[in-house]
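dumping this here before i forget
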Amino acid sequence: NNTISAITALPAAITTGKIIQIVQGTSTTATDSSTQSFVATNLTASITPSSSSNKILIIASGCYDLNGNARQATFAVYRNTTNISGGSGTGFCLPYSDSSRAISTVSVNQLDTPNTTSSTSYTIRIKATSAGAVEFISQGTEAYIQLMEIAAWWK
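structure:
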């Protein structure tokens, strides 16, 4: 029987696209920043890829507080000391408060190719884009970051 309905599983020899390992980091420690340079938060995790051709999927989420009018923040994912969210001054999210206060959640899903088999750290960093302060992991909440190593699906 060679019909599609006869297929019950993928061949065991297929090694690409599989999740190799998952690492999670959490934090309940708030980070406040009023500087216009990126500051590391306490939300970080490290992973040691098993192959330099594998990808790392970064999933992170946490609560932020822009406590004031006309405040803006930028959030970025850093691999060790490199901003992988679009460049040195950019990020994956730029929330803005046009009222007296904005409290919400920021999340990111980002795929990275670290090209290494050495331990690699991923950290969420923040900066105040306008006057005033931003707080990440605010309101007594817990933030998380998950790192998933995915076997390369190309060679």
